[in-house]
C-alpha cells in the first residue's frame, strides 16, 4: 500500500477532513495538521478514528510568519515529515518562505501541491504576497491540484506541462439544524469571511433599493467575520430589513442559518472557487451569484440558481425581486434541480476516485 505524508494548514482542515480519512481506505496516510484549529474543526478531527492506515499529528511553527528564521524551521519540519510517506501532499497556503523551503527539500516528482487560488482574487488578504507565492508555486512545482475547472484553465494559461489533479471541494456538512424554522419572512443569506472582493456592500445597496419598490416582506441576513465592519455599517439606511451577525461562527450554528434562509447570495466581484457555495449545495439552498466566470461552472443554469451582472447593485436587486416573487412550487422545483446537479457533480465517490487515480499514478 502506497504511503502519503499529508500536510494540511489549520485553515484548510474543513477542506481535507472528508478527504483524508476516506483515502485511508486506499493509502497509508500520516496526516500533519499545522497551526491552531477552530474549536469546530478540532472537534471534528478528534472524532476521526486513527488506525494502522491513518495517523494524525499536530505541528506548531515557533517562529512568526514574517521572520526570516521561519524558512529554516519549515525546512527542518518538512524534512522530518517527508520520511513518513512515499508521496508528500501539501495543502498549505503560501506564507512567507514556505513554498521556497518546500521546494528546497522535497522530491518534486513525488510532491503534490494543492493551490486554492491559482488566480488571486482582487482585494484578497495580503494580495501582493499571495500573487507572488502562487506564481512561484506554479512555476517551480510539477504536481498541482486545483479545485475547479476555471482554476485549472487559468493555471494552463500561466504554465505548461504540469500534472494536474482537478477535483472540486467536497460538500461541507456541518450537521443538522438545531430547530425548525420559526420565521417565515423571505430570507436572503450571505455567509462567510467578509472581504472587499466579496462585495457585501452591493447586497446592502440592492436590498435597500428593493425595499423601496416592493410591498413583499423580506430580510437580509449577513453572517461572518469582518475586520472592517465599520466601513459597511454606514451603508445601512434601513436597518429593519437586515439581520447582522458579525463575528466568529461556530460550526454547529451554520446549519441553522442555511435552514432559515430561502436564497444564498454571493455577490463576489472575483474569486478562485467558493467553499461557501458548497455549503449551500449541502443544505439544498438555491443561490444568487454574480455572473463572473468562476460561478458559471456551478450556477450557470437557471433551473437551480440565478445570476446578476457583476458589480451592479441594481441588477442584483432585480434578481432578488425575481426570487422574492417565486411561488413555493417554483422554489421546490429549483431545489430538486439543484439536488440533481449536486449528485452528478459533487458525489463523494466521484471526487475521491479522482484523488485515488491521480495519486496512484505518481
Report on this model:
- The chain is an alpha/beta fold and 362 residues long.
- It has 2 domains: 3-170 and 346-360, Glycogen Phosphorylase B (Rossmann fold, 3-Layer(aba) Sandwich); 186-345, 3-Layer(aba) Sandwich (Rossmann fold).
- Helices cover 38% and strands 19% of the residues.
- It contains 14 helices and 13 strands.
- The protein has a 7-stranded parallel sheet with strand order 3-2-1-4-5-6-7. The chain has a 6-stranded parallel sheet with strand order 10-9-8-11-12-13, sandwiched between helices.
- Strand 5, helix 6 (127-140) and strand 6 form a beta-alpha-beta unit.
- Helix 4 packs across helix 5 (98-105) and helix 8 packs across helix 12 (313-324).
- The longest helix has 18 residues, at 328-345.
- It is globular and about 65 Å long.
- It starts with a strand and ends with a helix.
- The model has no long low-confidence stretch (mean pLDDT 93).
Q: What is the topology, as strand order, of the major beta sheet?
A: 3-2-1-4-5-6-7
Helix content: 25-40%
Question: Largest sheet, described in full?
Answer: 7 strands, parallel
CATH names the topology of the largest domain as Rossmann fold
CATH second-level architecture of the largest domain: 3-Layer(aba) Sandwich
Strand-pairing-aware structural class:
alpha/beta
CATH superfamily of the largest domain: Glycogen Phosphorylase B
Highest CATH level, the class of the largest domain: Alpha Beta
Radius of gyration: 21 Å
Round the mean pLDDT to the nearest integer and report it: 93
SSE pattern, N- to C-terminal: EHHEHEHEHEHEHEEHEEHEHEHEHHH
Number of domains: 2
Number of strands: 13
Separate helix tally: 14
Approximate shape:
globular
In what range is the share of β-strand residues?
15-25%
Low-confidence stretches: none
Task: Give the termini distance in whole angstroms.
Answer: 13 Å
Amino acid at each position: 500500500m502506497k504511503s502519503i505524508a499529508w500536510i494540511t494548514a489549520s485553515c484548510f482542515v474543513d477542506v481535507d477532513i472528508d478527504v483524508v480519512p476516506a483515502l485511508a481506505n486506499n493509502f497509508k496516510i500520516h496526516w500533519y495538521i499545522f497551526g491552531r484549529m477552530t474549536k469546530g474543526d478540532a472537534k471534528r478531527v478528534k472524532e476521526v478514528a486513527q488506525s494502522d492506515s491513518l495517523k494524525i499529528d499536530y505541528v506548531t511553527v515557533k517562529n512568526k510568519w514574517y521572520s526570516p528564521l521561519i524558512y529554516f524551521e519549515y525546512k527542518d519540519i518538512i524534512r522530518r515529515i517527508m520520511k513518513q510517506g512515499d508521496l508528500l501532499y501539501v495543502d498549505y497556503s503560501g506564507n512567507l518562505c514556505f513554498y521556497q523551503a518546500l521546494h528546497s527539500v522535497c522530491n518534486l516528482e513525488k510532491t503534490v501541491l494543492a493551490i486554492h487560488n491559482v488566480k488571486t482574487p482582487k482585494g484578497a488578504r495580503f494580495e501582493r504576497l499571495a500573487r507572488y507565492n502562487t506564481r512561484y508555486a506554479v512555476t517551480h512545482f510539477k504536481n498541482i491540484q486545483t479545485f475547479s475547472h476555471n482554476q485549472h484553465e487559468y493555471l494552463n494559461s500561466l504554465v505548461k506541462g504540469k500534472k494536474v489533479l482537478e477535483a472540486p471541494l467536497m460538500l461541507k456538512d456541518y450537521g443538522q439544524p438545531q430547530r425548525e424554522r420559526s420565521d417565515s419572512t423571505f430570507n436572503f443569506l450571505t455567509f462567510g469571511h467578509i472581504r472587499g472582493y466579496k462585495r457585501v456592500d452591493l447586497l446592502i445597496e440592492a436590498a435597500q433599493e428593493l425595499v423601496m419598490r416592493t410591498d413583499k416582506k423580506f430580510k437580509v441576513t449577513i453572517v461572518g467575520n469582518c475586520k472592517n465592519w465599520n466601513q459597511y455599517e454606514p451603508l445601512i439606511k434601513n436597518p429593519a430589513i437586515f439581520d447582522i451577525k458579525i463575528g466568529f461562527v461556530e460550526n454547529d450554528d451554520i446549519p441553522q442559518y442555511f435552514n432559515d434562509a430561502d436564497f444564498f447570495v454571493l455577490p463576489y466581484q472575483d474569486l478562485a472557487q467558493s467553499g461557501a457555495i458548497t455549503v449551500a449545495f449541502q443544505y439544498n439552498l438555491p443561490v444568487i451569484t454574480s455572473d463572473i466566470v468562476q460561478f458559471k461552472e456551478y450556477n450557470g443554469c437557471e433551473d437551480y440558481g440565478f445570476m446578476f451582472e457583476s458589480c451592479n447593485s441594481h441588477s442584483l436587486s432585480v434578481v432578488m425581486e425575481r426570487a422574492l416573487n417565486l411561488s413555493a412550487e417554483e422554489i421546490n422545483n429549483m431545489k430538486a434541480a439543484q439536488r440533481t446537479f449536486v449528485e452528478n457533480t459533487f458525489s463523494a465517490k466521484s471526487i475521491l476516485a479522482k484523488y485515488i487515480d491521480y495519486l496512484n499514478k505518481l
